[in-house]
Design goal:
Largest sheet: 8 strands, parallel, barrel
Shape: elongated
Helix content: 55-70%
Amino acid sequence: MTDMKRTLVVALLTTLMSAVAGAQEAPRYHVGVCDWMILKRQKLGQFALARQLGADGVELDMGGLGQRTAFDNKLRDDAEAARFRHVADSLGMAIGAVAMSAFYGQDLTQRDNYLELVTDCFDTMDRMGSAPVAFLPLGGCGSDWATDRAKRSEVVRRLHAIGQAAAARGKRVGIDTPLDARGNLKLLKEVKSAGIAIFYKVQTAVENHRDVPAELRRLGARNICAIHASSSDGRWLSADSAVNMPLIRQTLDQMGWGGWLFVERSRDTSMVKNVKMNYGANVRYLKEVFSLPIEQPVVALDSAGRPRDYVETIVKRAQKATDELGITYTLEGRNVLHIVSNRYFQLNDIYAERDSLKEAWGKQMGSKDGRQRAEERCDSRLYRTHFDMEAALKMYLSDEQIEKVKDVMTFNVVKVTYEAQCDMIPTLKDKEKRQIMAWLKEARELAIDAESSKKKHEVFGKYKGRINNYLARQGYDLTREREAWYERVKARGGRL
C-alpha cells in the first residue's frame, strides 16, 4: 500500500470512527415546548424563550384557521422563514415538529382542501430545516367519528391520502386521537400508510384512566413518532401523581424508542399564565428524568466550603426573589438566584470577619478601639461591594425587576410603609410623596446589607422617624391623622 493510499485509509477510518462516536453520544430524547402554549405562536421570540426555559427546541404551529381557507401562516414567505431559521440556529434551538393545532377545533372531514393544508405544512417543514414530524389532532372531528361507520370511513380515507403525501416527501404525520392503544393500532391498520403514526398524548391517557406505560408498549416504538409528555392543567409534572414519568422513561428505554417529548400543558393553575415558571419547571423535570443535559448558569454559586444546610437555607431565601419574578425555573432565573445567594454569602463573610476582628483587635488595642476599627472595616467592605449585586443583576433583569428583588430582600417594607403613609394622610402632596419614597428607598439600600431581619427593620425604623419629623414640619398633626386613619380602617372592616 502506497503512503498516499495509507493516508487516505487512515483518514477514512478516523472519519468513520468520529461519526460512530458522535452517533453514540447523540441523546436519545429531546425536550421541547409548544409555541402556541407558551404564547409565541409563529413569533420570532419563541426561540429565545424556549432557550430560557431550558428546552432543546420547539413544536412550531402553522397558525390559526378559523373561517379561512388556509392557515394564518407567515412562514410561507421564504424571507420570513429564513429569518426564523437563522434565529433558531443561532440560539441552538431545533424545530422538532410542526403542528396543525387548528384541527383541535376544525373537522378534518369538512375541509375539502385538506391536502392543500397539509401540503402547506410540509412546505413549512422544509423551509424550517426539514422538521421530522407534523402534528395533526383529530379533536375537531367530534366524539362520534370512531363509531360512526360513514364518518370513520371518511377519516380513514383522508388520513391515507395525507399519509401517502407525507411518505412521498419523506415525512410522517403524527395523529392525536381519543382512542386507546388497541383502537389506535386498529386505525393505523385501516389507514394503511407508513406516513401516518401516533403522536402520543399523555394527557389523553391520564384523563381516560389508562395505564400509560402499558399503552406505550402495546403501540410499539415504530408506531409512535413523538410524544406530548404532559397532562391536564392543575399541577406541574413533578407533582402529578397520575403521571409516573420515571416509569414512562424506563418503558421507552426498554422499547428502544427515541425522539421528541413536548410539554403542552401541566400548568399550575394557581399561576396558569406564568409561562416561565410552568414550562421552565416541566422542561427541567423532564430533562432530569430523561437524563438530559441541563444548561448551566453563567454565574456560579459560591457554595464551596460552606455547610450544606446553610447553603440550602440561603438558596431558599434567594429563591423568594425569583419566585416573585416568576423566573425560578429558567436559565436567567438560576443566574439571578446565584447572584442573590452569593450576596447573602458575601454579607455573612463580611460580618463573620468583623466579629473575628473585634475579638482579635480588642485584645491588641482595647475592646472599644478594637470594636470601632472592626466596625469601620466592615462598613468599608459593605460600601465597596454594595453595588456589585445590582450591576450583576442588570445582565438579566430590567430596572423594575431589580426593584422587586430589593423589595423581597427587605420584606417589602418600602411598599407597605409608603402605602400606609398615603392611606393615613390622603392629603399628601406629590412632592411630599416623592420625598417619602426617596427616603424609604434610601433605607432599603442600607437594610439590604444589614446582618439580620431585626437590623433591617431597625434601619427602616430610623427612616420612619425621619419621615414623621418631616411631615410634622410640613404642618401635619400626625396624632390626629393617625386617629382618623384608625377610624377609617375600622369602618371598612380592617385592622392595624
